[in-house]
């Protein structure tokens, strides 16, 4: 019997990158998986590559009506939801939103980034709780935060703020569900330096991307970028019944970045 047999999952922002990898691993472990995104063409392509037991749903995480429709569609087709991965996220570099530092960022760009990352996760948790609270077996909400939710990022300030808020909201949800005796755990995953299309937006367009990525990789303790699958394995674990006693934690998938600090003594 596969680890996630008889479970139904919804993954947001699953057309590409980490969300697509999480969807793939959940599927490989026996779950029925609904992938959702705002990039419908790519989302449908991804579902077509995954095949049996994967389905595409239109879901803009910023819109409450979209959550209502998506959850209603899942309930009417499978009758249940057991795993929700709030993965959809934007950096602020994805649109011409301008500088993302605390001095120059516009109010509009600040709100737009929070709308997707934080409001999207809030709505996901709200509708996820409603959909899963009557379940008879362990159910899981997994919020994709970031190392940027733990440390400051001067040139992605709204992104860092939104990810820090996701980290904290995860704990509120975890404790709320525990208090209510709902069978739902809620945990956050904190990736860093995972090679996905998101990084392409953040590189200097006039310098060779590979050179820039190698320079960054050299600063990571494990000396390489992670892969979307590294994050997906953690999501599978937190979604499984083996993790039913784990709630409110933050799990770093970062090649050791957050294990250290700057200006530490070096060996002689
Ligand atoms: N790649 C990394 O190094 C890294 C590090 C830390 C955290 N993360 C987080 O992991 C998650 C996935 O990142 P990724 O690197 O795969 O990014 P990505 O840009 O490759 O994929 C993000 C997906 O989210 C979708 N999306 C954007 N806005 C949406 C909305 N309003 N509703 C629904 N879907 C929407 C996009 O269309 C895209 O398919 C994000 O939350 C990101 O912040 C990534």
Sheet/helix structural class? alpha/beta
Count of DSSP strands: 7
Which compounds are bound in this model?
A: nicotinamide-adenine-dinucleotide
Strand content: 5-15%
Task: Describe what this molecule looks like in 3D.
The chain is α/β, with parallel strands linked by helices and 268 residues long. It has a single domain, classed as NAD(P)-binding Rossmann-like Domain (Rossmann fold), CATH 3.40.50. The chain is built from eight helices and seven strands. The chain has a seven-stranded parallel sheet, sandwiched between helices. Helix 5 links the parallel strand 5 and strand 6. The longest helix has 26 residues. The N and C termini lie far apart (54 Å). Bound molecules: nicotinamide-adenine-dinucleotide. The site of nicotinamide-adenine-dinucleotide has 29 residues, from helix 1, helix 4 and helix 6.
Task: List its salient traits.
268 residues; alpha/beta; seven-stranded parallel beta sheet; 8 helices; binds nicotinamide-adenine-dinucleotide
């Amino acid at each position: 019997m596969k680890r996630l047999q008889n479970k139904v999952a919804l993954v947001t922002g699953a057309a590409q990158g980490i969300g697509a990898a999480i969807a793939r691993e959940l599927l490989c472990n026996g779950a029925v998986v609904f992938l959702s995104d705002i990039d419908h063409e790519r989302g449908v392509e991804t579902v077509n590559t995954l095949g049996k037991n994967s389905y595409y749903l239109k879901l803009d995480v910023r819109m409450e009506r979209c959550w209502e429709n998506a959850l209603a569609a899942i309930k009417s087709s499978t009758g249940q939801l057991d795993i929700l991965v709030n993965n959809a996220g934007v950096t602020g570099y994805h649109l011409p939103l301008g500088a993302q530092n605390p001095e120059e960022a516009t109010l509009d760009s600040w709100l737009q980034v929070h709308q997707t990352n934080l409001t999207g996760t809030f709505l996901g948790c709200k509708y996820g709780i409603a959909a899963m609270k009557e379940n008879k077996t362990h159910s899981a909400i997994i919020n994709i935060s970031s190392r940027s939710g733990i440390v400051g990022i001067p040139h992605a300030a709204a992104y860092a703020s939104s990810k820090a808020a996701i980290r904290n909201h995860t704990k509120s949800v975890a404790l709320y569900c525990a208090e209510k005796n709902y069978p739902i755990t809620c945990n956050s995953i904190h990736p860093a330096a995972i090679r996905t299309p998101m990084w392409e937006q953040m590189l200097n367009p006039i310098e060779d991307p590979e050179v820039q990525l190698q320079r960054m990789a050299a600063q990571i303790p494990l000396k390489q970028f992670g892969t979307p699958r590294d994050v997906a394995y953690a999501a599978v674990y937190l979604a499984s019944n083996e993790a039913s006693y784990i709630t409110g934690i933050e799990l770093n998938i970062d090649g050791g970045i957050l294990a250290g600090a700057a200006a530490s003594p070096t060996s002689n």
